[in-house]
What we know:
Structural class: alpha/beta
Mean pLDDT: 82
Helix content: 25-40%
Strand order of the largest sheet: 5-4-6-10-14-17
Low-confidence stretches: 119-128, 137-142, 287-294
Radius of gyration: 24 Å
Distance between the termini: 57 Å
Amino acid sequence: GSLIAYDTLRRDEVAGGSLARDLTYVSFGSQVGNPAVRSVFGGRIEPLESCRFWWHLFNEEDDVFTCPVGLPSRGRFRQVDTLFDIEGFADHAGESYLGHEHTALTVWQDLAATVARGRAAPAAARPTDLAQQHARIVTRAKPAELKRKAVLVGVADYPDPQNRLEGPVNDVFAVSAALQELGFPVDGIRVVLNDRATGQGIRERLRWLLEEARDGDQLFFYFAGHGAQVPGYGRDSEVDRVDECLVPWDFDWSRGDGISDDELAALYGQLPYGCQFTVMLDCCHAGGMARGSALRARGLAPPDDIRHRMLRWDRDSQMWLAREQLARITPEEERKLARAGDRKKWLGESGSVRRMGRGTSLWTPSAGQYRAAKAAIAHRGPYVPVMLEACGEGELAYEYRHGVTAFGAFTYSVCSVLHQVARQHKRPRMSFEQLIARAGERIASVVAEPQNPQLHCADARRREQIPGLSPL
C-alpha cells in the first residue's frame, strides 16, 4: 500500500497535480526504501514536496524486506524509530507500529493537534514542531555538527590463523594521518579494528557516517582486510548470482555475514548530490588466496561446501564446471548491457556478479526504463560514490613490507603519493584519476603480480580535485 501511495502521490506532484497538498502521509512496515524496490523508482526516493508532512515508522526488526527510507529527517519528513521484536512475522504487525509509544509522541499528537486547530488556516502554513520534540526525547545527544567524517576499518587478526594478515592496522593509521592532513578533524574519524570490526560494528559505524548527510559534507569509508565472493540468492531462494562482499572479523560464510554491495547501496543511494562520499577498499573480491607466494593476498577462497553451490557436474566432460548463470552473461543480458552504454565497465565481464560499490540492485533492467523512472519521479538517479579499489577484476590485492612494517601495497602507495604531492608543490593539486595512476606505478615497482588499482565514479568526478590537499 505504501508503494502504491508513494508512486501515485509523487507522479501526480511531478505532473503539477494537488493530491499530496496539505496531506499528512504515514508509512509503516514499508519496503519503499529497499534497494530492490527503489530500482522501480529509478534507484532513488524523492520527498513529497507539497505534502504537509511525511511520517515514516521504521522497525529494524521487521524482516519483511523493510528498510529506512533514507531521506534526511528534516523539512517535511521525519523517520521515527518504532522498535519492537515479536516472534515470527509479528514484527510486521500494523497495530504494533501504530500503537508504539514513539508513534503516539509524534504522529497521533500531530494529527490530534491538526484536528483541534480546525480549518482556520491551511495546515501547511503551520509546520509541526513535534518532529523536533520527538528528536529531543528519543535520540541521543549528538556532538557538534561535523562536515568531514570518516570510518576506517582494519581486520588483520581473523579467528582462523590461515586467514590472518599483517598490514590492516598499520593501513588504518596511515589513512587516518593522511585524512587529518587533508583537513578531517580527529573527532570526525572513527576507527574499528580486528575483533571489534564485526559485521554489526561496521554497520553501526556506516550508519553514523551516512545518516543525515547534507550538501557539502565530505564522507570517507576505508576497509583493509579480506574480500570474498559468496553465492547470492534470488527470489526463489535459488543461487542465481555471485555477490562481492567485505569480510568482517566474525564472517563465517553464512548468508548476510559479509558487507555486500546491496547493503552499501541501501545506505549511499539516497545521499544528497552535493556531498562527496569516497570509498577506499584495500582488499580483493574474487577470492583465492595466493598460495606458495611471498606476497600475502587479501581475499578468501570459499570452503568446499560454499563452492559446491557455484558448481555443476558436467556429464559429457565428467568434470565440475561453473554454473552457467554464474559464469557468463547470457545473450539477452549482453544486449541489455549494450543498450545501457557503459554498464559493462561497472559490472565487469560477468553480469551475474554484483560488484562491490556499484549499487547494481538500484538499477532498472534497461536504460529506457531507467530514464522513464527518473522522469516520473523527477530526479537524477541514485547517488554514485567515488570508489578507489586496490585491484582490477580477477586480480588480487597484495600486502607490501616497507622495511619491517607491513602495509597494503595499495594503501601505502596512495598515502605516499599524497604525501609527496603535498611536500613538492607550493599549491598542490591532484585529481582522483591522477592519484590512481600514480599509485598504480608505485604498486608495479614492488608487486610482481598483476595489481592495477581502479577508480569507479561518475565521469564528472574523475578529474575532480581531491579536496583539502595542502602543503605540509
